[in-house]
Amino acid sequence: MKQKIKQGEEIMNLWNEGYEELEGVHCLAEYKEQIVPENQGNPFIEALPNRLGADAFSDALFSAPMFRPEFLELEVEDRIELSQQIRPSFWLPFPSHYDKYRGLYTMIKIGYQSRNPLTAVYNRQFAIGWDKILENGLDENGANIAGNIPTAQSLSEIGLSGMGKSKIYERILKQLFPQVIHHHEYKDRKLLMTQVVWLHIECPSQKSLSAFCRNFYAAVDKILGSNYYEKHGEKGGTADNLKGRMVKVAAQINLGLLIIDEIQNIHRAHSGGDETLINFITELVNTIGIPTIIIGTFKAMYIYKNSLANSRRGIPASYNENITSFLLEDSWDWNQFVHGLWDLQYTAKYTPLTEELKATMYFHSIGIPDIAVKLYMHVQQKAILVGGDERITVPLIDEVASKSLRLFKPISEKIRRGEDVDLKKIEDIEPDWASFNDYIEQASFRMKIYGKLAQDHARSLQRKDKNTILEELTNFVLNLVPNAELAESLAISVYNATGGMGDKQVMFKQVAQLALESNHPVSQKNEQELKDDQAISLPKLKKPKKMKPPLDEEDIRYIVKEGLKKGISAEEALEEVNIVREWNDFLKFCM
After folding, report:
1. Residues 36-61: b if buried by 16+ CB within 10 A, e if exposed
2. What's the rounded Cα separation, in Å, for the pair 307 and 290?
3. Measured at the alpha carbon of residue 231, what is the angle toward residues 229 and 237, in degrees to the nearest 5?
4. CA 345, CA 67: separation in Å to the nearest integer?
5. 237 Ramachandran zone, left/alpha/beta (phi>0; psi -120 to 50)
6. pLDDT digits (tens, 9 = 90+) for 269-308
7. Pairing label, strands 189-196, 180-186
8. pTM, to two decimals
9. Pick from 383, 386, 385: which is nearest to 394 by CA?
């Protein structure tokens, strides 16, 4: 490991030779042969580093604090200080991280396909003026007024705090890409150009377009030593003037990727601020051709919702969305993460990781890596301070969590109970599911969902296909009832009872049971009659009276109903199956 770090430092210094006073990694262009025809003959693409395989990617991004056996013999304060290095130093790549790297790498290359400095159309855009190109947008063929068809893609990375949304892109870009590539000559042809491969800025707390542009100029000046902030940052003007100046700079530095962090800030914007900024981001992608990644919490969801109806520019043509929620307790990611974390023990006696300890860590962190790391650090420090054998135990984790996670505890308890979380107060934890489900159903762009929400998303896809499910249920039950109207009535009743989110096989079972209990003879129609009935358009039929499918024995309503038959109260019935407990049973959660 030590040797790898040293080699990495040598590479970084070599890349920055002559540019040590500037931020970011700089290098001279070295052109590599391209396999994809669309990438060939483009200096901006050929100068990019080669793509890494999954194993090489994992090796490059994994990091952990240095650990030596002799550390365990150090004094208490020294070992506590060592344990504090876990959070800034420990990083374990997940398979989903490699998916994001692959997507990011492709975004940069595809974005440069329409910006080849050796082509006439590239230079024509500078002659026309980027402000005019931005103002005129795209024609019906997707070309700007210079005749160029931008190939840029955009991506939203949405998720809760602590899942490493920003950190993963920061690590990928800083460790696997140079930030600035300097071109001097390409195939015996002079090419004096600067290529900024990526730029990271934060959505300003002021939420205004002018503040956004100033953040952009400041970030460019830090890596290039330029004076764009002095020239443009303090200038006022209309929104069109602000956008035009920033677009000109982005084009001049040949920006490959723009990362906009903390995008949820725009939802607190003054009147019109959020729409102005989102429209500008859309224009950067669609009209200018700069790939963009926007990162934010669940508060930033539905960011392009209003753009869906915008017929002129609309949602970015190649827009994707990644949504990340809690890690699942039985997932590969969580198990690998907690095992890797657990090895970093600075206590006098090593405590092996048991299933009980792992479950306790998940219980308190609810699958958020950042919370788990903080908790583990505090648990070690408590064990070291208490002394003795310094073993890590479940009661110790519970005790530390009750104090160090005191502010987080009300949120985690609500989530564990399956209660809704008020987004107005806790906007970073989880999206409002009703709105989120509608959003998924309406989304026309590609969406990837990770963690706990992935399960809910799979069910939402089923709900999205409502008409198909109703048709299947109706056609199935037509073999059991005499007419199509009754068949549709039973199908809709079962569908509505589950909100369209139930298991399809269970719905088939329920609708069959209702059909057999409906006191109608089983249909003996011939094949042609069945086809005629099935051809009946469902929407033309009257809305049937809602019928409830039979209750499951574990359903609370069923338990209460059966209890009433026995002459006992609802509370007593629930107590019998341990759903309701004595008040003192919960004291242990409050100690």
Report:
1. eeebeebbbbbbbeeebeeeebbebb
2. 18
3. 95
4. 9
5. left
6. 443 445 677 778 888 888 888 999 888 776 665 555 544 3
7. antiparallel
8. 0.65
9. 383
